[in-house]
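Fill in residues.
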């Protein structure tokens, strides 16, 4: 990816909280270039290899529950741009009307949806977003606009790069639903407790950004999925 000049960034990113992270990324233009090359390579190979499995998953979803196979939702990526993320539908239709967050025994999750979530197969359609540049293989998981509005100035630094399919934060908080099980107000707990902790990992990723670290996080994600 090509990083914009600081003066060309949206107003909400031209702050003292974002500047230190911007300065780090400016010095790593080669790593950013190779990150994009890696994204394209994995996306092309992934689409070729996963097309048939994704088609099979889509058919199973359609046969086991009412509604579309693909779930689309507005999320936020680079420089605060909004896009419609694609995921395999794992919940009943209109489930998000009862809240964005889910807990471990959420009755809105379908039977096939439980399997897809366990092995992160619901994320597979996002490989097309990686190819288009809306997302990257590694980066901060894209949040819905409501939660992005809760970001501090420093947290906004995560929007200097494309949203990611995986990250150290998403690996660490893979059991996030269980953490929300006992919460009376899941939104409050997420915004005040979980989100800040996840952002610590995301900001640390930027401060230590490098091409080899992306490779490490990709391999770590594969290991976590299979173990």
């Amino acid at each position: 990816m090509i990083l914009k000049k600081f003066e060309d960034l949206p107003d909400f990113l031209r702050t003292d909280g974002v500047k230190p992270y911007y300065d780090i990324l400016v010095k790593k233009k080669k790593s950013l270039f190779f990150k994009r090359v890696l994204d394209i390579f994995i996306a092309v190979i992934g689409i070729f290899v996963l097309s048939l499995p994704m088609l099979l998953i889509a058919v199973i979803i359609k046969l086991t529950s009412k509604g579309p196979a693909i779930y689309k939702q507005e999320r936020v990526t680079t420089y605060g741009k909004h896009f419609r993320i694609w995921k395999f539908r794992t919940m009943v239709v209109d489930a998000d009307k009862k809240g964005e967050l889910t807990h471990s025994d959420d009755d809105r999750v379908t039977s096939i949806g439980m399997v897809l979530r366990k092995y992160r197969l619901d994320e597979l359609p996002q490989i097309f977003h990686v190819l288009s540049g809306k997302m990257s293989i590694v980066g901060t998981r894209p949040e819905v606009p409501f939660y992005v509005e809760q970001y501090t100035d420093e947290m906004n630094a995560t929007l200097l790069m494309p949203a990611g399919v995986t990250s150290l934060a998403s690996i660490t908080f893979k059991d996030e639903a269980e953490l929300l099980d006992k919460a009376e107000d899941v939104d409050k707990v997420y915004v005040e407790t979980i989100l800040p902790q996840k952002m610590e990992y995301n900001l640390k990723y930027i401060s230590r950004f490098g091409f080899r670290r992306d490779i490490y996080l990709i391999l770590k994600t594969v290991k976590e999925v299979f173990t």
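The first strand starts at residue 70 and ends at 76.
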